[in-house]
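Consider this:
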Amino acid sequence: MNARRLAAVGLAAALSAPSAARATGFTDIGDDLRSHVQTSVELHGALRVRGEGLYNLDLDRGPTPSGQLLYPVPLGDPKGQWLGYADMRLRLDLAAYALGGGVAVKVRVDAPDNVALGSDYAGVPSASATLRATAPVRIKRAYGEALTPIGLLAAGRMGSHWGLGILTNGGDCADCDSGDAADRIALVTPVAGHIFAFAFDLSAVGPLAKRPDATRPVGVEPSADVRTFTFALLKWRDELARKRRRKADKFTGEYGAYISHRWQNGDVPAEYLPVASPVAVNSSQVMGRGYQATALDAWFRLTWPKVRIEAEAALLMATVEQASLVPGVLLRDPVKSTQIGAALESEIGAPEDRVAGGLDAGYASGDPAPGFGVAQRVTAKQPKPGDVDGPQANPPHDNRVDNFRFHPDYRVDRILWREVVGTVTDAVYLRPHVRATVFKAAPGALTASLAGVASFAVTSASTPGQKSPLGVELDPTLSYASRDGFGAAIDYGALFPLAGLDNPALGLSAKPAQLIRLRMSFVF
């Protein structure tokens, strides 16, 4: 393998989340290109089955001033405490390699994609004797890779992941639910001992119209197109090299950074706004938007024989010159945003040690507007003090959106951020953790782990209780992983809410919540 291909492999593994079924696009471009004596096809995948019981996730603290509950409750008994749910996902990653090994085409298919078990009953529920076919096949990624004289080139719809995954996350982890994808052209090449990557994304297109032959559409408003350009720099070693260096008592330092810029000059809100009746999309619906956004992100990983420290920090800056969604109705001032997020992970103990632990931490900047601002709904009403969610900007009175939102597939707990709020935002958290191998044998290993998460709001005005302390959560896990691809885990979570989740308007204190989840995976 030549130096260019080795460098491309470096970029791939450094940025991708570990998974037996890889297809993360920009994060693993060309990592498996190798010499082939004939055209070959490889198939990898995993079936995931999960079931969970949720106890009192509305915290028994009543509705917010806007009538919102923190979490759904049983319809027939609003005072009921238990909710249940189970789902499954079959993920298939297909890769076809051309003769010679310099070209590959890769596809990711989720079929079904997180389908709720029992949701496809036939006829009357109590009389159903079978289940209908599940939801349609979803092609998540389809892209090609080619080794060229100037580097590795990739084009198509591919995954997008960087660093720890707090900003852009490919969703490759065993318990992930979403994941980012980009319609992208990317070039990866080595220079001066580093890996350089360039990417251009077709992030969104304006309204489409049929061509005369009715076989392909054409974009009819170029100003409404959204484009993104990214430049990344990386110094990296693969997992095998890190393991060898650890065994030789050597230190390994890795780092990376990228800058990404996105823009949109015009917009046609009638294309995406929900309306009671269809609106004709014509020249009267086109309006100026003036959207500009820049993201800066830095990542590093330091590895000693018995210690790993890894961190990522991101700065997002954006301006929307015209935030109105109604053509002809213009706002005087632009809406601006400055968001900061950072996460730290640490572990004392080598991966093969029987006992290891560490301390994780995170920060997400906040916004003084009521609510956490996680849900992105263009027609949502303005939140009231004490609400749990809602828009963070309210032009012309409030023209800023400064709350950083972690990617929802970057998980730090099981109840507060993952279920009740939706993701980490407007917060500081500390997360000590420990794991121990209960037994290890030829078929596999049984591992027990425990994490504690203490969470505080950066801006107390955002919380339902108008206080900063949010809660303390305990998350133990018992997991088994076999060498033949089977894995099972029992997760438990207990949230002990603090004053930030109380309901001062009704004089109610938030009560503890619990969660139990069984996960099984079959990887091939």
User: Anything to note?
Assistant: The CA atoms of residues 374 and 422 lie 7 Å apart. The two ends are 26 Å apart (CA to CA).
